[in-house]
Every structure is written in C-alpha cells, then in structure tokens.
Amino acid sequence: MDKPGEEHVTWCPSGEAHRPESVVLGVRSGENGQVVYLSEPVPAAQVLPTIPEGIAPHRVLRFASHCVSGCANRVGDDCGLIQRIQTLPSPDATAAVPRCHLRPHCKWWNQTGVDACHRCPAITTLGSPDDELAVLVADPSTTTEQLRSWIAAAE
C-alpha cells in the first residue's frame, strides 16, 4: 500500500471514507454485520459514488485510511480505540485470523498483534445510538476503567 519512494505509512482499519487515500477494507455482511475483507484494496473514491443516496457509506463498508496524529483516538503514539476495544470480552482466540490486505500496515496489528485481528471483523464504524456499550467504546474520552465498570454492572 506504500507507494514507491513513500516512507512506511500506518493505516487505520476504522478509517474515514472521504480521505483522498481511503480504501475499502471490507463489506459488512450478514445478520451481525461482520466485515468480510476484500482480497485487494479498492480506492474509496471509486466506490462511494455507487452507494445509493441516503445510505451512510460506513453502514455497508469498512474503510481504511492513514493513521494521523490529529486523530481523536490517538494516545501518544498508540490508538486508544483498539485499547478500548480490547477491554471488551475476548472473541474466540482459537478461530482463524481473517485474511486482510491491510495487516502489514495496520496500526492495530502493529500495536497489539493478532488480538486486534480477532476483534476487527466485529468493529462497527457507524454504531447505533441505542447500543450504549458501542457508544462508550467509540468515545475517545471513555477510559478502559469506565468500560470495565459498565461491563461488570451489565453482568
């Protein structure tokens, strides 16, 4: 994904659809909206015009874009979003890791390794306001302690 002469760029697997470098990472599929990854990146600019008006692009697709220092989820050099996601109950770590063209450049992979890959297909970039836990995870001001408290109270 790096272009010749371009230094290594880290990519966010929960990126913005409308950034110039954005690519489609995968398609949301099935009843639970899990991401099915594309085998090769497709520029978002080629896909966005095909999405019917009134449908939010993040509702049907997952995008990847450059990880930027001004991101609200940035905590020093780390991604606070994947830190919050890792607070959630762990998925089946024995399941196969999905194939993903982004992995060598992925901020989450470089930060947390295979654990991020097990969690990534379930991440919803555009969450429902009715899903209180998803709203908390997506909020950059939420701490992992607040998430643990919420999860403990819900059990």
Largest sheet: 4 strands, antiparallel
Which percent bin holds the helix content? 25-40%
The SS-based structural class is alpha+beta
Radius of gyration: 15 Å
Unreliable spans are none
Percent of residues in beta strands: 15-25%
Strand line-up in the sheet with most strands = 1-4-2-3
Could you give the distance between the termini?
42 Å
Number of helices: 7
User: How many beta strands in the DSSP annotation?
Assistant: 6
**Strand/helix succession:** EEEHHEEEHHHHH
Q: Let me know the average pLDDT.
A: 82
How would you sum up the global shape? globular
Key terms:
6 strands, single chain, alpha+beta, two-stranded antiparallel ribbon
Overview of the molecule:
There is one protein chain. The chain is α+β, with helices and mostly antiparallel strands and 155 residues long. The protein has helices at residues 44-47, 57-60, 80-85, 107-112, 114-119, 132-138, 144-154; strands at residues 11-12, 23-29, 34-43, 61-66, 74-75, 78-79. The protein has a four-stranded antiparallel beta sheet with strand order 1-4-2-3. It has a two-stranded antiparallel ribbon with strand order 5-6. Strand 2 and strand 3 (34-43) form a beta hairpin. The longest helix is centred in the C-terminal third of the chain and has 11 residues, at 144-154.
What's the structural blueprint in terms of helices and strands?
Elements (H helix, E strand, L loop, with lengths): L10 E2 L10 E7 L4 E10 H4 L9 H4 E6 L7 E2 L2 E2 H6 L21 H6 L1 H6 L12 H7 L5 H11 L1
Antiparallel strand pairs: 1-4, 2-3, 2-4, 5-6
